[in-house]
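Field log, afternoon session.

UNIT: design team B
ACTIVITY: writing a sequence onto a fixed backbone
BACKBONE:
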């Protein structure tokens, strides 16, 4: 028979004894300690209960640590995606066109951007990246519409966009904003 030495063992035994048939067998063995078949049966049931509890604990631990690992992995992925979201907001914020109606007539970045550095950074992108960003930000199309226009998948458009935005971020990191590209904006800012 197992001797209880601490509270954890007591809780474990209490859980074992919550089952009515185990409680009944335990009471029978308690009142007739000479019943060897009863003692053997109680020990066998307890070992089965203990093995099942250990299995459940093991599976529970696997689930727990796997969920922690997945959470950490998702945080890393979220952090990896954040820079493109930030640069996307930056590009949106740097365009001098505030509403979509004004955006329709603008076909080129030099007409839309007020920051010379951003314009130069965009001009350093590949033609494919420039076209994708132009369709997304100047024409305000959705990724699936751009994909349809270019004859590629939406995933390909998303990949090109993210790559282009990361390139822009790298080129623009650490510097200050320079003078505006448009002369009218430059004279307005000097006043």
């Amino acid at each position: 028979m197992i001797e209880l030495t601490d509270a954890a063992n007591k809780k474990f035994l209490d859980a074992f004894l919550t089952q009515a048939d185990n409680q009944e067998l335990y009471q029978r063995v308690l009142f007739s300690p000479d019943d060897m078949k009863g003692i053997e049966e109680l020990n066998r049931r307890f070992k089965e209960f203990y093995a099942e509890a250990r299995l459940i604990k093991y599976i529970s631990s696997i689930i727990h640590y796997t969920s922690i690992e997945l959470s950490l992995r998702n945080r890393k992925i979220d952090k990896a995606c954040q820079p493109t979201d930030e640069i996307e907001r930056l590009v949106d914020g740097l365009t001098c066109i505030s509403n979509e109606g004004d955006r329709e007539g603008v076909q080129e970045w030099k007409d839309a951007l007020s920051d010379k550095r951003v314009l130069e950074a965009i001009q350093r992108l590949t033609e494919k990246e420039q076209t994708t960003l132009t369709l997304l930000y100047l024409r305000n199309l959705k990724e699936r519409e751009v994909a349809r226009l270019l004859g590629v998948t939406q995933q390909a458009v998303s990949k090109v966009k993210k790559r282009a935005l990361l390139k822009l971020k790298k080129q623009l990191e650490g510097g200050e904003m320079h003078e505006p590209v448009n002369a009218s904006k430059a004279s307005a800012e000097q006043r």
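LOG NOTE: Confidence is low (pLDDT under 50) at residues 96-105, 176-191.
NEXT ACTIVITY: expression trials, pending approval
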